[in-house]
Amino acid sequence: MRIPLFFALPALVFPLLLAALFASVSTSLAETAEQKITEETTGVAVVELFTSQGCSSCPPADQLLTALSSLNTEHQMPVYCLSFHVDYWNSLGWSDPYSSKQSSKRQHRYATVLETNRTYTPQMIVNGAEEFVGSNAERAKAALKSALSKQATATINLRTHSQSDEPQLTVEFAVTGDEEQEILNIALVQAAAQNEVPQGENSGKTLSHVNVVRGFQTLDLDTQQGKAFFALPVNTGSSEYLIIAYVQNRDTGQITGANSTAVDLQ
C-alpha cells in the first residue's frame, strides 16, 4: 500500500496475497457470488479501484479487479468494476498513461465523505460505502456479498450511438427510482489495456488492466431522462469500450443502482 507523504497516517500492515491463495480466493469468490445471485441477490455492486502504474503495490489489486470483473463478463452478475488511475505518483519515474487529475480528485472526495482523511493506492471502494486495501480479496468478497444482498432502489436504462464522421459518443439514459439527493455517474471505460512499464517502481513489467476509466461525468438527477456526450478515444484500434452508469447519493456516497452497455463505435 502506498500513501502520499502529505496524507500519511499510521496504517495497518497488510500482507500481500500469495499467488496460490489469490487463485483459490478468486475461484471461491466467483462460485460464491454466482450462487448468491441465483438465491437472493437483489442489489448491485460497483467496485472502484484507485490504482497507479507508478505504485509497486498495485499490480495484485489490478489482478483482483480482473477477477471481480469476470463475475460480470462470464457470470452475468450485476458487478460493475472501474479502474481509476490517479496521477499523484507520476513524478516517481513513470507517468501512468491512463492517469488523470479527475481520478485523483474523485479519490480525495471519497476521503472526505468516508472520513478516512487519507488517500492511498491501491484502494478499493464498493458501492461508495466500504473502502479497503485494493489487493485484499477476502474484504472484497465480503463487501460484494453484502452489496448484492441489498435491494437496489434505482434502475438505469442506457443507449449509446456515434457517427463515423463525428468524434463524439452520445449516451442516452433513463433513470427510475428515488432521485432525492442523487447524482448519476457515467464512465466511459476501456475494457482491457496492457503496456510495458520501462521506468519507476514497476520497471520491466507488463501491466494489464480492466475497465480503465477514460472519461467520467457526474450529472444532477433533476430529470429522469437525458443525454451525456463523450469525446471518442483516439486510435481505438481493436479496443472495446463500455459505458458504466451508477446512481449515487451526493452526501453519503452510497450507490443505489447501476448498469452498463457496450459502446458501438461506428
UniProtKB/TrEMBL annotation:
Statement: the UniProt record of this protein carries the keyword Chaperone: no
Q: Which Pfam families match?
A: DUF1223 (PF06764)
Q: Which UniProt keywords apply?
A: Signal
Q: Which InterPro entries match?
A: DUF1223, Thioredoxin-like_sf
Signal peptide (from-to): 1-30
The reply on keyword Protein transport is no
Give the protein's recorded name. DUF1223 domain-containing protein
> Which source organism does the UniProt entry give?
Bythopirellula polymerisocia
